[in-house]
Amino acid sequence: MLKPELQGLEDFVDGIKNITEAQQKVALNYFEDGSITAAIPPLKVLLHIMAYGNYEGKDISDPELRKLFEREYVINSDWYKERLQLKQQKDIAFYDNQIKYSEDFIANPYNNSIASEMDINTRLENLKRQYKHVISNEYLESLMGTIGTDPLYRKG
Question: What pTM, to 2 d.p., does this model score?
Answer without folding.
Answer: 0.77
